[in-house]
Amino acid sequence: MKQLSLFDASGSYFVPRSPKLQMDKAALLQWKARILNYQQQVKITKATQQQTLFDLPKNTWHSPDEINPFSLTLHSSLFWRQSETAFGLENSDQGCLYFVMDNTLPLLLYVGETKLTANKRWQGTHDCKSYILQYIEMHRRYDLDVNVVSAFWQLVPSKKILQQWERELILKWRSPFNKECWQWWGQPFGKD
Hints:
Layout: H1 25-44, E1 75-76, E2 96-102, E3 107-114, H2 118-121, H3 127-141, E4 148-153, H4 159-173, H5 182-185
Antiparallel strand pairs: 1-4, 2-3, 2-4
C-alpha cells in the first residue's frame, strides 16, 4: 500500500502573490501634500513650555523643540559613503541625530539617532535606504522633481537622551519613513 503525500513531490507547489500596489502620480502628490501641510503647521506652531515653581539650572544641550531640521546644513543623501568629516561629524564617538529630507518642498522623511557615526550606522542594511531608493524611483517614473538630502545634529549629551529626542522628533514631525508614523501616512515605500 502506497502512503499518500500531503505535498506535491514534484516541487511545483507555488503560492501566487498579489502584485504590490503602486501609487499613481496623483496619489503620490496628494500623499506629499498631506505631509507638507502637517509639517508646515509644526513649523509655525510654538512648542508649549513647561512652567515650573522653581528656577531650574539651564542645561547646555538645549531641547529637541529647538531643533529645526530644515535649518541645518544639508548634505548628500549618500552620506554613508563619505567620511564623517565630509558632513561635519568631527567627533566620531559622540553620536548624533540625523534627518533625511526631500528638499524640493521640503519634507522631513526620516529621523534617526546613532551612537555610532551616522555613516557607520548606514554602512550595512538600513530599511530607510530602501525607502529612499523606492521614493526616488517613483519620482523619476512620474518625471517629478526630487532632491533627497541629509542633515545632522550633534549636540546631544547621552545615548538615553539621544533616543528620547529621536522619538520626540519623530512624533512631532511625523516623518513618514519612521514606522511610528505609518499610522498617519501608510507605508507606500516599505519593504518588498
